[in-house]
């Protein structure tokens, strides 16, 4: 991502230096316009009571030794730690990792999950569209295969995502116009900005349930739909088929 603007925003908020917003520039395949989304940094520090229902459900289903992948400011990990669970918070952002340590998380790892090896977990947690880390549909099979290698026997992967077909909806009749011959419609490209500094562009993946189910099956993982959100989002659980 180049400049760690995400981590800088988190650290500034944690240290009380600034409460500035994070701006995300999103380019969808087949569209020329950039959609701008602005998020308050404070949102990333929210407590359990103000989290989305899908997040609360996922946290309540966590068990055993937990790896919180893409932990950000560490709010999910903090809830789990304070609930007496063993949790490792992992992020590739140096600023996010330092923020988590400042907030009191005892086990924090600074590395991309694709470079993380050697430890088995009972629960892998990927929230706030955590599966998006895989970046492209073509990378998803290898990504899920790597996650599977981190699972203990009878382990589970809890993840949420969104089906963004609605962004291609032409009218209220639910007719969708997805460009023919284009890559998978859930592939997006982001740039993040904080206080005038921008990250480099990076890919992100939004995934529909059926596609996730099929790719999971290709690496011998079972798919279970745990819950649906209010805006085309969902929570899923993946487990070993053989157990």
Brief descriptors of the model:
single chain; 243 residues; alpha/beta; Rossmann fold; 7-stranded mixed β-sheet; 31% strand
Gist of the model:
The protein is of the alpha/beta class.
Describe this structure in words.
The protein is of the alpha/beta class. It has a single domain, classed as 3-Layer(aba) Sandwich (Rossmann fold), CATH 3.40.50. 25% of the residues lie in helices and 31% in strands. The protein has six helices and twelve strands. The strands form two sheets. The protein has a seven-stranded mixed sheet with strand order 5-4-3-6-7-12-11, sandwiched between helices. Strands 1, 2, 8, 9 and 10 form a five-stranded antiparallel sheet that branches. Strand 1 and strand 2 form a beta hairpin. Helix 1 runs parallel beside helix 4. The longest helix has 13 residues. It is globular. The N and C termini lie far apart (38 Å).
Fraction in helix: 10-25%
Distance between the termini: 38 Å
Give Rg in angstroms: 18 Å
Roughly what is the average pLDDT, rounded to an integer? 91
Using the alpha-carbon principal axes, give the shape: globular
């Amino acid at each position: 991502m180049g400049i760690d603007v995400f981590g800088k925003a988190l650290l500034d908020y944690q240290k009380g230096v600034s409460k500035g917003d994070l701006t995300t520039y999103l380019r969808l395949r087949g569209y020329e316009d950039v959609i701008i989304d602005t998020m308050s940094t404070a949102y990333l520090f929210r407590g359990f009571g103000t989290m989305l229902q899908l997040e609360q459900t996922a946290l309540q289903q966590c068990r055993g030794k937990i790896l919180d992948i893409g932990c950000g400011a560490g709010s999910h990990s903090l809830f789990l730690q304070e609930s007496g669970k063993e949790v490792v918070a992992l992020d590739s952002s140096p600023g996010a990792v330092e923020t988590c340590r400042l907030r009191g998380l005892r086990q924090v790892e600074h590395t991309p999950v694709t470079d993380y090896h050697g430890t088995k977990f009972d629960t892998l947690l990927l929230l706030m569209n955590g599966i998006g880390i895989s970046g492209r549909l073509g990378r998803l099979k290898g990504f899920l295969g790597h996650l599977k290698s981190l699972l203990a026997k009878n382990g589970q992967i809890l993840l949420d995502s969104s089906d963004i077909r609605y962004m291609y909806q032409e009218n209220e009749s639910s007719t969708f116009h997805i460009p023919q011959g284009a890559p998978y419609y859930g592939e997006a490209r982001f740039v993040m900005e904080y206080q005038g500094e921008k990250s480099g562009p990076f890919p992100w993946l939004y995934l529909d349930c059926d596609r996730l189910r099929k790719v999971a099956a290709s690496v011998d993982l079972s798919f279970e739909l745990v819950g649906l959100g209010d805006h085309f989002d969902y929570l899923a659980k993946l487990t070993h088929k053989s157990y």
